[in-house]
Write a structure and sequence with these properties.
This protein is of the alpha/beta class. The chain is about 50% helix and about 15% strand. It folds into two domains: about 200 residues, Spore Coat Polysaccharide Biosynthesis Protein SpsA, Chain A; about 90 residues.
Length: about 325
């Protein structure tokens, strides 16, 4: 028997004039899987006319996690499909994710959030900083299609959850924004013992923060939340890869200190020389990463990726240290 559950698509919006919201809603309307409702939770009322849409607004700012929880309470569907207001789904998005929920051990399904075609060069540069091998590391599958796999942490920009499991763990925890999705996934996989599957066919197109200040602001927020979670939620966040930008930052500061003060200690000089070798290897890896981007984009984006990724790593490293050592709680 064909499995055709009602899917509640939950979109949270926080801008009075959002240039991407209509793009998102129009793409939802074109889904090949037709049994869905749209729940829009926003700060301010938006005048829209979509037959499957219900709207909740507040007239003031409300945090994303709280909005998603409110949307989930309004939902009539068996599956909650969360998507950001600056993203839009591919036509088979719902069709691809629904089939996974036939298995009772599956609590969630995620898929890649690709940079949309035709965006500005600043937005494209931000996208490559996230999607390239050096920019994303082992998490490149979050930004480009990769092999199907189980995951224990996935961002809510493209995440579907079985409603009954969502309710069992208490939904999103607004105390952990940004990063409430990390806490939710931890609860689903460790508390309930359920699985979250990544499917490369569950595609949305997710707009990026343009370089440089908005891009760094967002990635800095990612860094501080990951550092904080590495301390308080080590089950899914205490991983060596998250510490690498901070270690690189500390190494460069050490080398600069040795240079400025002309320290001649033999042991310190040996460590400094090791640092030079590692820095040279890092630069070489950035060059190979640029070649990878060149095959998929153009020479300008390839060359631009070198300083953008380097600066992004440094700033992420600063904010990770802040989150790991000094942050008492995350503030919206």
């Amino acid at each position: 028997m064909e499995y055709v559950p009602l899917v509640s698509i939950i979109v949270v919006d926080y801008k009075k004039k959002n240039p991407y919201l209509i793009e998102c809603l129009n793409a939802i309307e074109k889904q090949t899987f037709r049994k869905f409702e749209i729940i829009l939770v926003c700060d301010y009322r938006v005048n829209l006319d979509y037959p499957k849409l219900r709207q909740k607004y507040f007239g003031h700012y409300v945090g994303p996690a709280e909005k998603r929880d409110i949307g989930a309470k309004m939902a009539k569907g068996e599956i909650l499909a969360f998507i950001d207001d600056d993203a839009y789904p591919s036509p088979d998005w719902l069709k691809s994710l629904v089939s996974h929920f036939k298995k009772s051990n599956i609590a969630g399904v995620g898929g890649p959030g690709m940079t949309p075609p035709g965006v500005s060069w600043q937005e494209e540069a931000s996208g490559w900083a996230s999607a390239s091998p050096v920019g994303a590391g082992m998490y490149r599958y979050r930004f480009l299609p990769d092999k199907k796999q189980y995951v224990d942490d996935y961002p809510s920009m493209n995440l579907a959850i079985r409603k009954i499991d969502f309710e069992k763990v208490g939904g999103f925890d607004s105390k952990y924004w940004p990063g409430e999705d990390t806490k939710l996934c931890l609860d689903l996989t460790h508390r309930l013992g359920k699985k979250i599957i990544y499917d490369p066919k569950v595609i949305v197109y997710h707009h990026r923060r343009p370089i440089l200040a908005p891009h760094l602001r967002q990635n800095g927020n990612f860094g501080i939340h990951r550092g904080y979670f590495a301390r308080i939620l080590p089950e899914t966040s205490l991983k060596p890869i998250y510490f690498l930008p901070s270690l690189m930052l500390l190494g460069l500061l050490f080398m600069l200190f040795v240079d400025v003060f002309g320290i001649q200690n033999i042991l310190i000089i040996k460590v400094w020389n090791i640092g030079v070798v590692i820095s040279s290897l890092y630069l070489l890896v950035l060059l190979f990463n640029a070649l990878w981007i060149l095959r998929r984009s153009n020479l300008f984006q390839a060359l631009l990726s070198i300083p953008v990724i380097f600066i992004t790593h440094l700033w992420y490293g600063v904010r990770f240290i802040q989150g790991f050592l000094f942050t008492g709680k995350l503030i919206q």
